[in-house]
Structure formats: C-alpha cells, structure tokens
Amino acid sequence: MPGEDLRDYAAIGDGRTVALIGLRGQIDWMPLPGVDDVPIFGRLLDDDAGGCIELEPVGEYRVRRRYSSRTNVLVTTFTTETGTATVTDALVTGVAGRLPWAELARRVDGVDGAVEFRWRVQPGTSLKTASPWHDDEHGASIMRSGLTTIGVTGKDHGPDGKRTQAGLTPSIRGSFTTSTGSRHLLIVVGTHDEPVHLPDPDNVDRGIDRTIDAWRVWSREFSYDGPWAAEVQRSALILKLLIHSPTGSIAAAATTSLPESLDGGKNWDYRLAWVRDLAYTVESLIWFGLREETHAAISWLLRTIRANGPDLHVMYTLDGGLDEGAQTYDVPGWRGIGPVVTGNPAHGQLQLGVYGDLFAICRAYVDAGNVLDVETGRMLSMFADKVCDIWRNPDSGMWELPEIRHYVSSKMGCWQALRDAVHLADLGQIPGGAGRWRDEAERIRAWVDEHGWSESRGAYVMAQGSRDLDASVLLHAFSDFDRGERMSRTIDALTAELGEGPHLYRYSGMREEEATFVACSFWRAAALVCVGRHDEGVAAMHGVVDAGNDVGMYAEMIDPSDGSFRGNLPQALSHLALIRAALLIRDLVGDGADRT
Predict the structure, then answer these.
(1) Which among 259, 176, 215, 187 has a CA at the least distance from the CA of 555?
(2) Mean pLDDT, range 307-315, rounded to an integer
(3) Cβ atoms within 10 Å, residue 177
(4) Helix (H, G, I), strand (E, B) or coil at 454
(5) Which percentage of the chain shows pLDDT scores above 90?
(6) Count of alpha carbons within 13 Å of 150, Cβ hemisphere only?
(7) What is the pTM of this model?
C-alpha cells in the first residue's frame, strides 16, 4: 500500500520523469515516458490497481536513507536481525545525457550477514485508461499496457521472476538473499509507442556509477557559498529533477491530485509549467551560475509565448502547448481523497501578476550580462503597453480563485512589470514608450496606497474593499515595492492571523480548510529581513528549513500540528522559496546567518 505520510517519499529522476520511493523501498509513482503522462506506476493514487515496484526485506527491519553526496541517486540501508544491505536507486543517464528510454536501476549490495529481499514489478491501469498484460512471446519478462512497454531484467536473482495474475493487474515477482559483498540488480526499462531496449545488467551497473558521476559534475558547476548551503544545494538538485530536459520547461511538481485538504475537493495537477515558477527558477539559476539551464528555460518560455500568442497565459504544458483543462478519473485518490485529475482548471484565467513574472525573468537575464533578441524586445514592449491598458481590471489573483476581484498583489505585479520594462528600455533592450510605462507605474502605486492599504487592519489587504489578508503581498518586499513600515506592519498582521509557529497560511480563512503553505512561510522569513528585522527573519527561516523531510524535500503544504505533508510533491515553489530566502538573507545579513 502507498505511504500514509507523504514525508516518507524521496524523489529520483532522469530529466523526463520522476519516481517517488517510500521508506519500505516501494515505488508508488513513476509516470512513463514523461512526468506529465498518466502514471503506469501510480499506486499513490490507486491502491488497488495503480501499479508499483516493490523491493523490501522479508520480516522486520530498520531503515536509514540519504542521497549519495551531491546527486539525485538515493541510497537506503536496511538492517535486519540477520544482516545489513544497501539499495542504490537511480534513473540511469546515458554517456551523453538522458537515455532515450526510461531505465530504473535498483542495486542491492550486501554489507554484512544475510538479508532476504522480495521484489515485485506490477504495472497499473494508468488511471483506468489501459489494462496491462504479460507478453511472453519474446523470451523476456515483458509487460505491456496500452502503448507502454515494460521490460524487467536483473543480475544474480535471474532476469525472469515469477509471473502472477494475483490482484487486479499482472505482475512479475521474485526473491533473493544478500551476503557480505554480494551484489544484485533489479532493472525496469520502459518505452512508449516504440521498441524497448533490454540492457545488459553489467552496463546498467556501470550506468549507476556513471549517473552518480554525472550528477556530481553538474553539482560542481553549482555556485553557492552562504547560509543553509546543504539545504540550498538539495533544493537546487530537486529543481533539476523538475526541469523537463527535452524542452527546458519546469514542472510545478512531479505529481497530481495529492490533496491540499483532507476533506477533499482541492486536488490539482501541477505537472505543468507556470510562468511564475519559471521566473523564480531563472533567477535562481542565474545566481548559481548555471548558464545552460538558464538559457534553455528562458528560450523555451519566449518561444512558447510567441507560439501560443498573442495573449500571455498563466501556464503551459511541458512541451510548450496550452493545457486543455481538467479531466477527472474514476480512481480513489491518495488515502481515498479525490478527485484524481489531469490538467488544471486555472489554465484560462486572467492573472495580472504573471506580467510581473515575465518581465522579472527578462530583467534578470539581461542584468546577468545577456542580450534579448529583437522579436523578444518587441513582444515585451507590446506586453508593457497591454499592462498599462488592463491593470485596472479585476482578475483571479495569484491563488487562482474563482472570485474575480481587484487583488492587491496582482496590482503590485503590474507595477513590477512596468518598473522592469522601464529598466529594460533604459538599457536599450526593448523599444517603446518608457515614459508612459513609468507614469502608469506611479498610477498603480497610488492605487495600491489608496485601495490596497487598510489602516484599521494595519496591513495591505487581499483585495479592494476587503479586510482579508493575503500572504502573496510579501513577494513585493522582494520586488522592492515596499520594504518600509507598511510592509513590516503587514508581516505582523499576517503572523497574528495566519501564522502558526514558523509557518504561514496563504490567506484569510485557510486555517480551517488546508495546511500551511511552505512557500509563504519562506516568503515571511525573507520579508522580515527585507524590512530590517534580521534576527526574526533568520529565526523564522530556521523553523521552516527544519520542517523538510529526512532527505530535504518539501511538498506544497505542511500541517503544523504534526509536520505531515499536504499537496503535490516535490513542489518547485517550496524549494524556490527556500533558495530565494537563503540568497536574500545571505546578501542582507551575511554568510553566518544559519549559525545564529
């Protein structure tokens, strides 16, 4: 059965898909061929027929795990009464980068004594869209489901396990026993609508080491010297898992439909590319000196916007198309909490803040010493003019709400867009009316001063005419909209109403509906530092950093009552918020902030 606590999972990936591995060695989530496909291994959402890959000692055992240093390769140590063994899990990469097929390698090394393992490979129904079957005609352990082909092979346990029809879907299963110095391999390969390659186990064994080396080469290019260095590097590695290497886009998370509320109804698909997330990612990649990923991400976004224009959309598919909206599936969901969906209903919303995100990406890219092309300059000039024309309209806000209102953080985002447009124009990077953009930005600031601030609440409010509070305004301490008294008082009001220890709920009323939002908690820590309250900001940062799981991964939300995770995972926005907060604290407080 899937993990009862989402904190139990660790992620591995190959640049196209992501697998989630639980503390019992079970893989309950691995879509093929891409992370945004329906999951052929999806027991996380369908306990009975979702599909899984199991590798677990027989009997009682203790477990410890870690990532191999500076990699996304997971090493788990199992200790039983009779011995100790380690399992090294990798989605293997090729000599020159990502393999053209998915290759999951599970290497089991005997450390001492003897440990008996049982394993099982059981494809699922891909959210009840396909029925798997054995294909024994080719002299190998092959299973098929729809257009997906799965091959199972190995080393020193025999390439062919026992085929069984027990349960709702067929499986291949087997067992082996380790001894001191022994090595066993379980290998699962997968393709979609193409032939399947059955690799030589010795090549796969070497491939695990090559994958470790490749991750370490990438990590050596990563440049960060500052507080929370280990957590920042782990967050960067997790973000790398979410970067879709075929295009350069970044998924907001690796999963769909993990509930934000245990009451159900707030289940979303985050395997899409939000402009907002890409903005924060590009900013981080530039800070880290990762040139290739930076250029790939911004180039993908600009091509995608032009291909799907003339409007700027909130999100795009990972291959650069437009999401067609949510589709619901008749499967139970994690712990029976539905619905289970693909696609996202917010795809067609007007969210004005996205313009600020787009201009922030381009400004960060230019300020790093790069140059925009002519067509991008023209497109940005057009969008700046459009912001001047539409910022007075209500929208759905950052939280993608059904209520159309004049959200204050959306207006701040429009101010940011025009501020950055003026900056780019002054540098000669975009043509157009910088004077108009500058004047309109001042009008937006005046609107926020009049309609977005409540003296009785002592805070920026969520929307015009509202007394509700919204943590997304904290982003505009980052943007320099306000780092003064009003932002400081807003932090206090948010903490009083939405705070729970170091954690923060998204906006008024969410305490009763969902858990605290990880990114908001990091934003509060950073905003405290922005307004000069350094000690408070560092203390808050420590509290949120400590809430990650044992391998440094964060979901979308954390229940402050018990620390359990809620929502999709790993969540890009959570890790991006950690990185941005750490970088800002380093710049404003100093390198030793994590030791205070």
Answers:
(1) 259
(2) 95
(3) 17
(4) strand
(5) 89
(6) 27
(7) 0.96
For residues 325-344, give the mean pLDDT: 96
- For CA atoms 329, 331, 332, 334, the dihedral sign is negative
Amino acid at the residue 436? R
Q: In this structure, what are the phi and psi dihedrals at residue 189, rounded to the nearest 5 degrees?
A: -115, 150
Band the pLDDT of 3: cuts 50, 70, 90.
low
Backbone angles phi, psi at 321, to 5 degrees: -100, -175
- How far, in Å, CA of 584 to CA of 594, rounded? 13
| Cα→Cα distances 165→50, 106, 159, 169, 458, Å | 15, 24, 19, 7, 64
Would you say how long the chain is, in residues?
596
Q: What is the pLDDT of residue 159?
A: 45
Highest mean pLDDT among 86-90, 171-175, 287-291 belongs to 86-90
**Extended beta strands in 43-139, E state:** 51-57, 62-67, 74-79, 83-91, 93-94, 97-98, 102-113, 115-123, 133-135
Q: What is the 3-state secondary structure (H, E, C) of 326-385?
A: CEEECCCCHHHCCCEEECCHHHHCCCCHHHHHHHHHHHHHHHCCCCCCHHHHHHHHHHHH
pLDDT over 50 at 434, yes or no: yes
Residue 431 phi/psi, 5-degree rounding, is -85, 170
In sequence order, the 6+-apart residues with CB closer than 8 A to the CB of 547 are 502, 503, 518, 521, 554, 558, 563
Give 113's strand partners: 83
Could you tell me which of 74, 103, 310, 318 has the C-alpha nearest to residue 206? 103
Do 237 and 191 touch, CB atoms closer than 8 A? Answer: no
Q: Where are the alpha helices (H) located in 137-289, listed in sequence order?
A: 201-221, 229-242, 275-288
Contact assessment for residue 35 and residue 18, using Cβ atoms and an 8 Å cutoff = yes
Please check the confidence at residue 139 and state whether its pLDDT lies above 80. no
* Cα 521 to Cα 126: distance, rounded to the nearest angstrom: 35
The DSSP call for residue 243 is: E
DSSP 205: H
Region label for 373, one of left (φ > 0), alpha (ψ between -120 and 50) or beta (otherwise) = beta
Q: What is the DSSP letter of 450?
A: I
- Cα angle value 133/137/139 (rounded, 5°): 110
Type of residue at 187: I
Q: Is the pLDDT of residue 522 over 50?
A: yes
